[in-house]
Amino acid sequence: MNRSKGTVALAAAAAVMAFLAATLTIGMAMLTAAVDGSLPGGGCDGDGGLGGGSQSIGGSDWNAEQTENAATIVNIVVGRQLPKRAAVIAISTAIVESRLVNVGHGDRDSLGLFQQRPSMGWGSAQQVLNPAHATNIFLDRLVALSGWATMPPGQAAQAVQASAFPDRYAPQEAPAAALVDRFWVGPDRPVPAPVAPGGPNVQLASSVFACPDQGGAGVPLAPSNIDPRRLPPGFPPPSDPAQRAAVTYALAQLGKPYVWGAKGPDSFDCSGLMLAAWSAAGVPIPAGTVSQKTAGTPASVANIAPGDLVFIPGSIGSPSNPRHVGMYVGHGLVVNAYDSSTGVVVQPLSEWADKITHIRHIAGPPGRPAPPAALAEAAP
Known about the structure:
Elements: H1 3-23, E1 55-57, E2 60-62, H2 64-79, H3 84-98, H4 125-128, H5 131-143, H6 155-161, H7 173-183, H8 241-252, H9 270-280, H10 289-292, E3 297-298, E4 309-312, E5 324-330, E6 333-337, E7 344-348, E8 358-361, H11 372-378
Antiparallel strand pairs: 1-2, 3-8, 4-5, 4-8, 5-6, 6-7
Helix pairs in contact: 2-3, 2-5, 3-7, 8-9
């Protein structure tokens, strides 16, 4: 074993042993949630999220993932300084195509919020599974239509989607308009937001979000021999292709800014990084911690695997409603969009051990605890 790989092995072994020791004394607090990811209460203090969680809007009931995706679409429309009409058309289309859920299946190779087909030039499967990319490419094609903003209800959506069922879009403009009214702030035609001289070129969180930034990790970055913004030398990626793609993507974002509501590529919040990383692996997961904590299947310390989502209360959450998530990348490490002053970092998972409320396995084989003999061999 060379020196750099030895450093990783020592650090990993110490982290794993501390993690396992700590977690032997705590239980995993698992929630019983509805299949659609919704929780009772809604609002920023209920199941939360960008869109304010589960709630009734315009006479329709929407869960936390649906309101978050609607708020994301409105935010992108505002950021592109497009008129309010663009948000109504985009959301009505997503209601028809996916019920505002980031689905990984559809007719032929259709995927994501807008059921976009990679084979028809909408982008790769990995791209269209990210709601931010899916929204932007939909808007690109919408605004390329002459007179799109004054077309009759449903006509602009049909012109973009070229659906075999063209009459489905118009009836969804009323519920879409109610969702847009819930999140839209300011004039129907947004004005450019001022940019501070020398400010970072990142996606900026908009005032359209129903809930304010819900805090960061709430776990101190303890001194260690791991640089939080740099991958340790000799770090080996997972062997499983899906896990390797998700972990590699997440680790490639180290040092990027934390921005509330961002899903990449320039900035992320904690759940946005998880969504983007698994989208890069071609695996759809929901938006927002409230929905992600019921994604995939339950896992535990004993079978944690690379790519698994690890939840902690964060700075303002609770064991029953965690508000921060990171990704276990293997070798005793977790990557996460830490907070707005720190950005994306990697930490020893042992620093989270006594705070963990959920672990969710998304794809690939489950993990196995390191054999005691291997840990003893790597120990100082």
